[in-house]
Amino acid sequence: MAQKVLLLGATGQTGKSILDALLVDPKSFYVNALVRPASASKPAVAELRTRGVGVRIAELTGPLDDLVAALQSIDVVISTISAGGQLDQLQLATAANKQAGVKRFVPCAFITVAPPGGVMLLRDEKQRVYEHIFKLHLPYTIIDVGFWHQISFPLVPSGRFDAANATPWSQRIHAGGTARNMLTDLRDVGRYVARIIKDERTLNKYVVTYSDVLTENEIFAIAEEVSGEKIVEREYLSKDELVAKHTHFTALHSASPDDASARMHRNINDYAHSKYVREDNTPEYAKYLGYLDANELYPDFTPTTFREFMGEVLAGKVERPYKEMDFSALKEYSPPSPIAHTRQIRALPPEQPRRPGLLPRHHLPHLPHLRFYVTLVALVSTFIRVAFAQVDDPASSQSPIHVKYALFRPNNLADPDSFLDITYHTFRIPAVVTTSTGRLIAFAEGRRHDNHDWGDINLMYKRTRGAATGDAYSEWGSLQQVVGKGAGTWGNPTAVVDGGTVYVFMSWNGAEYSQGGGDLLPDGSKTLPVDTSPEGRRRVFVSQSTDDGATFSDPVDITAEVTPDGWSWDAVGPGRGIVLTTGEVVVPAMQRNIVGRGTPGNRTWSYQLLFGGKGTSVGGEGTILQTPDGRLYRNDRPTGTASDANMRQVARGTLSSFDPTFVGDAHLPDPQAEGSTFLYNQATTSAPSRVLFLNSAATNTRQRMCMRVSYDSKASSWGHARNFADEPFAASSFGSEGGYSSITKTADSRIGVLVESNWNTADRESHRLILWRKFNLGWLLAGDGDCTL
User: Fold this and answer.
1) What pLDDT, in 10s, does the model give residues 460-506?
2) Across the strands, what pairs with 653?
3) Residue range 37-53: average pLDDT?
4) What is the spatial distance between Cα 457 and Cα 509, in angstroms, rounded to a whole number?
5) Where do the domains of the chain lie, and which CATH numbers do they carry?
6) What are the tens digits of pLDDT across the range 522-577?
7) How far apart are CA 154 and CA 234, in angstroms?
8) Span 280-287, mean pLDDT?
């Protein structure tokens, strides 16, 4: 008779492996997935249903009775919950104990072998769950799996392993590379679990799985043998450095236990300290702790060896885990430690083969005054970067790909967009993001009666269907509304993807107000000027979606948290915010940054005032990104009549300190309009870092849209550019392209752009629409490299 299994985390990495293994044996297992109510309508859950998986809905932290009901008739509960949600399993275990039919509870272990009691924070949180299970006398099996093959291999000079690589520290060798570690192919985790949960010998036991026990030196040797290439580039961290980093991040997290970034870096360094300093992750130590060895339990089981896995990587048969995540910025986050940093980086000598388009890196000597030499190299590099901004980008070899169409269509067109049978005179102020699932969500102001910046303006959006990436207009759903309550002005959409949550910030004022007052409304009356009164001031709201944009919450007024007292006019964004490598959310706003601290989807909002907010005429419509060097970069709309009033206004800093003022960038002319910035990628061993910037590259027109690329870590020089006029829209059908814009990176690693278009530039009252372009780096780099026409 088939066991009824309830799997928590079925769409995660470990959960998918287990799900796949259980589904191939329907005679032994009938699989159900436990999902939260907020996730029930997500495409990933719909896909589970198509695979024959039963779906049970309950909130882990909700009413206990709901969980008990979800566990009805279940034989085995398997949890693969995310690292940050370990303690949510406590109530799940309690519910399983109340449901007498549960015969085995498999909590979320699935990590390297380590003891409890202060070695690893994550291991100690898991121990709290285990002890709760023990107190309940709940039947259990705890399964650890060593370290995955998928995050244990180095890269080779040709780049043939790059597509499967998930981490930025692949070339790192710890403590001499001699510590032995158990390794398991992620794809085998599910196969092991399927054997273990049918085996009475594993009930109320710890079990460890592994295919290999290898040192890092042996791992590198296997990679070289399989590829036939010599790996010269290696980064060494000594045992003293590992101890110092572990001590530092443990103290940092202890001082700020609610800081998501501090926790993340502690977890990373806990793993390294346990594996390479303590050398916990071995079969011998596992047996000492009382684990059963899965290879001894199942001698007929044939796991994928690391050498076999590397052969599959070489053949392109291995899918990169965590495809939706970008770990690249973590590598460079290295705060001060009590031990002088003595990394030795060896790079390919000029005569060795290297990736096309990339210059060889210089050897950095292992010297007592290494920091001096690093500083010197940085100064020389800055000079070279300024003198030779053009980089030989390997993406230039891509065949150009480009599609375009109108996405938000006003009511002067034959097929206008409508919501509840309402059409719009104008769509303006675009914003676009790519969610954690790869879905695109595009936002815009829907202006009911005219193209004016005041009056009845609603915040509208569209999103792609399923896994579509915007290659055709038909891939987008119909027009939807974030908010349009009353006749107020809901505008300046500024979106940010924060894990599984999508926030959209917006500015609001009553429909009877405008910035300066005296503006004509459709009924013939005139607006009042925005003022400092509670009812007359401009306010900031935020709405959020936890179901990939299917719905958005009612906007919440956060003006008191994110705006200085006494302000009247205000503007957030527009465009997009970012999540820093240190975990905070940052959203650009007038003369300040809005900052979200806490955990993804559960942020506390505050603000960072720039330049004291006194007397500056810039910092009104802002863009934000974190440059490859880790600093914040504001690139804002210029205003006024000063000598730099037609240059993009730039300032750099951190959340604790910013430049004293904006400075005009003479290389970025601007007609005093919004622009867009975007970090396309951090530098890798196969590609340079790329920062994108888009605006109308002129001082007297908004109709000269041009995208530039910066390859330097500060985004201080621009190495390539392409005019959108190279691929024009027909003016008779789409108007004159140019104005506000927004950039995203699509799930298939292309560039998606929203740009305004003016139906008739000679008519101040003309309709406005929003166009969509999607192209690859090959198209961007195929231009003449110049923003002038």
Assistant:
1) 999 999 888 999 999 999 999 999 877 799 999 999 999 999 999 99
2) 632, 658
3) 92
4) 10
5) 3-332 (3.40.50.720), 394-781 (2.120.10.10)
6) 999 999 999 999 999 999 999 999 999 999 999 999 999 999 999 999 999 999 99
7) 9
8) 97
**Biggest alpha carbon–alpha carbon distance for the chain:** 85
* The residue to which tokens 């975990």 are assigned: 583
The total number of residues written for the chain in this structure: 789
What are the pLDDT digits (tens) for 246-266?
Answer: 999 898 888 888 777 788 889
Distance CA 629, CA 533 (A): 42
Mapping DSSP onto H, E and C, the string for 33-76 reads EEECHHHCCCHHHHHHHHCCCEEEECCCCCCHHHHHHHCCCCCE
DSSP 572: B
In which element (H, E) is residue 234 found? strand 234-237
Q: Residues 50, 466: contact at Cβ < 8 Å? A: no
Cβ neighbors of 138 (< 8 A, separation 6 or more) are: 93, 96, 97, 102, 105
DSSP letters of 281-324?
-SHHHHHHTTEEEHHHH-TT--PPPHHHHHHHHHTT--PPSSTT
Beta pairing, strands 3-8 & 76-79: parallel
Cis ω for the linkage preceding 574 (within 30 of 0): yes
pLDDT of residue 327: 52
Structure tokens at 144: 């650890």
Asked if the model's pLDDT at residue 611 lies above 80, the reply is no
Distance, CA of 329 to CA of 581 (rounded, Å)? 6
Beta bridge partners of 697: none
Strand spans (E) along 342-447: 344-346, 402-408, 418-419, 422-423, 426-434, 440-447
517 DSSP 8-state letter: S
For 165-199, the pLDDT digits (tens) are 877 778 999 999 999 999 999 999 999 999 999 99
Torsions phi, psi for 309 (to 5 deg): -60, -45
Give the predicted TM-score (pTM) of the model: 0.55
Rounded to whole angstroms, how far apart are CA atoms 773 and 726?
A: 13
Q: Residue 141 corresponds to which amino acid? A: T
List C-alpha distances in Å: 253 to 85, 108, 216, 246: 17, 23, 28, 11
Q: How far from each other are the two terminal CA atoms of the chain, in whole angstroms?
A: 73
Rounded to an integer, what distance in angstroms lies between the CA atom of residue 29 and that of residue 76?
A: 10
Residue with tokens 């599609």: 403
CA angle 593, 595, 599 (to 5 degrees): 160
What would the pLDDT profile of 617-660 be if each residue is shown by its tens digit? 456 899 999 999 999 999 999 987 777 789 999 999 999 999 88
How much is the pLDDT for 714?
A: 93
Which of 657, 589, 652 is CA-nearest to residue 626? 652
Close Cβ partners of 251 (under 8 Å, ≥ 6 residues apart): none
d(CA 55, CA 435): 23
- Whether the upstream peptide bond of residue 349 has omega within 30° of 0, thus cis, is no
Closest CA to 589 of 566, 631, 561: 561
